[in-house]
Amino acid sequence: MQLKHAICRSIPDSFDRAIAQNRPASPINVQIARQQHQGYVRTLRSLGLQVTVLPGDSALPDCCFIEDCAVCADGTAMITRLGADSRRGEEQAAAEALKPNAHLEWMAAPATLDGGDCLRMGSRLFLGRSQRTNAAGIDRLRAVFEPLGFEVIEIPLGPILHLKCVCSGLDDDRVLLAEHTISPEFFAGKRVVRIPAAEAHAANCVCVNGTVLLAAGCPESHRIIHAEGLDVIELDMSEFRKADGSMTCLSILL
Ligand code: CIR
Q1: Residue of the CA atom closest to atom 1 of ligand 1
Q2: What residue segments make up the domains of the chain, in order of their start?
Q3: What does the alpha-carbon distance between residue 64 and residue 66 come to, in Å, rounded to a whole number?
Q4: What rounded mean pLDDT belongs to the chain?
Q5: Whose alpha carbon is nearest atom 12 of ligand 1?
Q6: Which amino acids bring their CB within 6 angstroms of ligand 1?
Q7: What is the CATH number of domain 5-253?
């Protein structure tokens, strides 16, 4: 699938109060996060994407993780109801930005879903059932996308935050998966490219038209992806990792 656009959202001043499952060893440095975010946007542009960067909102410390606000496929964008209370409201700006490019669908309480739980590969939507994405959210996603010809495959995640914390698509046929996380059997019919558990955070990568944006400092994953015939660009994501985020979370790709 040829990607053309990305929607990103700037780092708010309050980013050092973003949700973190574990307290980081050192606090988030907002200035460094901004530099890393600029590097990410620059890289997407260098790969030919037209990137829209929405302003951050200090009332929403996690708002740069815009991926969680929508699931987009084939001209339809389902605007999510985010699983974390403190994040509700982030979806409004994303919806405004998506409106010119997509038909919008919405979800209502009690449904919750974070976009980081949804991995699209061709006509399949792999969907994590997680602390953030509940049964009603999954039902709503099915109601929107199954009539459009998508097959929705539910994957129970247990303690894993989001599905794409442990896997992402290299293309429609290849999934990058961190070992000892979820069963490769969920991806029947796809080629599963495994990376070592010690580099699990590298499994959250973005592939833009044949080039993979990979978290820096994961040499084995770099080698494995390169051996798949893909170019790799490493980006330092240290400040996003402290808030349990990484590469996919920072954009909605169209
Ligand atoms: C959160 O806990 O919601 C944020 N601190 C991290 C969200 C990361 N999003 C993603 O992986 N799609």
Answers
A1: 19
A2: 5-253
A3: 5
A4: 97
A5: 116
A6: 18-19, 62, 65, 67-68, 84, 87, 116, 162, 164, 243-245, 248-249
A7: 3.75.10.10
